[in-house]
Design goal:
Length: 436
């Protein structure tokens, strides 16, 4: 058989889930490049390179050594470094976006300007400031409005401060001063968040099941924002607080963004991640990412039934319109275990012990094996994904596994519970004025 030698870049739980899906394809021979060793990915790969993920020259040399033909990039930092441009120039076909197309994530002002220039729905009121002084003057002149403050560039999901939620007016000014330059002030949106991801080949988008992430550190959506504490998806691949109309609007917004990027001469190939706030008037865009979400990748990739090699082929040859994608009809719950004290004071370098058996899928993130001991790092440690015919079955599977882990780690116990789901449904109805 003619193998596709595919390189996967990245070392997190997201990439472990991607690696598992790729390695299920009989056509794919997987290679990996990662900043810190992830044993789960290493076990899926024929050969792995430990490297700075932005070191394009070293990664190209690894591709040449192993006759790698295709690449898929997990995290945003190498995309911003232009890894796909460098790999493409070296003859490696990328199923991830170029540096220019990835600006949809890496430059929030670019994203908003594109949406505005092309009259794409779902763009909140926004103001870009090159200098913090101008942002502060603007804020002072609009002291009655609660804005979301965002640095233009990448922050690992931790850079947003919302007036009235994370900071007061004075805290907002302090934060803007800290950021110094390149700041976006955005209308604060109210509603329920959801994630829609799609495979994109430059023109066609194939949507994946909807997922809801949980960004806050603690139960009841309290505490600081994190990279994501866990996520769930439902049996029907939709969410009960997202109507058919909402879904169609969100998907058409993503299609419009892909068309706009093509028109700009920077066609988008890869996974496009849409983070939406479902508001009173319909879905509004919180942000786009030029990659899979983490944890959301673990929900959807665990469900993917289609051959991943064929999918990469279709994405990179512009033939997704002829590809019939299939996801298992199951619900999923993903629970991240994080070091005690995460995200502010994570207690790292502690041993954790895994349950001997569990029916949940295990994805490693920031943990390492040292002489048969599993040791935590300072970011999210590992995740369990439960799958089932009901959300509750999926949740019980994930939570049972998570509860049995011993050591200095914790997790949110409310992800995918019936109570939380009900709360979200009622919240959405309240936002829409359907209940008083
Ligand atoms: P981001 O890094 O843009 O994904 O934002 C992180 C989190 O901040 C989001 O998941 C939202 O919970 C919140 N957020 C971002 N922008 C807004 C906004 N305009 N209004 C309300 N919440 C927001
Ligand atoms: N789960 C949010 C992100 O990956 O950015």
């Amino acid at each position: 058989m003619n193998y596709m030698n595919i390189l996967l870049v990245g070392s997190g739980g997201r990439e472990h889930a991607i690696a598992c899906t790729f390695s299920k394809s009989p056509k794919v021979k997987l290679f990996a490049a990662m900043a810190t060793p992830n044993q789960g990915i290493i076990d899926c790969a024929s050969s792995s390179l430990i490297t700075d993920e932005k070191d394009c020259a070293k990664i190209v040399a690894f591709c040449k050594e192993h006759q790698i033909t295709h690449a898929f990039i997990g995290p945003e930092a190498p995309l911003e470094a232009g890894i796909c441009d460098v790999l493409s120039a070296a003859g490696v076909t990328c199923a991830s976006p170029s540096k220019a197309a990835a600006r949809i994530e890496t430059d929030k002002a670019f994203c908003r300007n594109l949406m505005s220039d092309y009259n794409i729905l779902g763009c909140p009121e926004y103001h870009y400031f090159a200098d913090c002084k101008d942002a502060i003057s603007f804020l002072e002149a609009h002291a009655d409005i609660e804005y979301a403050i965002k640095p233009v560039g990448l922050t690992g999901g931790k850079g947003v401060r919302i007036i009235g939620e994370h900071v007061d007016f004075y805290g907002a000014k302090e934060y803007i001063q800290e950021l110094k330059h390149d700041i976006v002030l955005e209308e604060r949106l109210f509603g329920e968040e959801f994630t829609l991801q799609a495979f994109v080949d430059g023109k066609t988008l194939l949507p994946m099941p909807l997922v809801q992430d949980h960004k806050r550190a603690f139960e009841g959506d309290t505490g600081p924002n994190t990279g994501g504490m866990g996520s769930y998806s439902m049996l029907d691949h939709r969410l009960p607080f997202v109507s058919e109309d909402d879904y169609n609007t969100a998907f058409s917004i993503m299609k419009s963004v892909v068309s706009a990027l093509a028109e700009e001469g920077t066609p988008y190939i890869g996974v496009l991640y849409g983070q939406f706030m479902n508001t009173k008037t319909g879905p509004m865009v919180i942000e786009f990412n030029a990659r899979f979400g983490d944890p959301e990748a673990m929900n959807v990739m665990s469900l993917l039934d289609s051959d991943a090699g064929d999918l990469i082929e279709a994405m990179t040859t512009g033939t997704l319109d002829q590809f019939s994608i299939s996801f298992a009809k199951q619900a999923t719950v993903c629970i991240y275990l994080v070091p005690t004290g995460y995200p502010e004071n994570p207690q790292s370098d502690c041993e954790i012990v895994l349950p001997e058996t569990s029916d949940a899928l295990l994805y490693y993130a920031n943990v390492r094996w040292e002489n048969d001991h599993l040791i935590t790092g300072s970011s999210r440690s590992l995740a369990f994904v439960g799958m089932g015919m009901t959300l509750e079955d999926a949740r019980v599977s994930a939570i049972s596994a998570a509860s049995e882990v011993l050591g200095e780690v914790r997790f949110r116990t409310d992800i995918g519970t019936a109570e939380v789901l009900e709360r979200r449904i009622i919240h959405m109805k309240t936002v829409r004025g359907d209940v008083t």
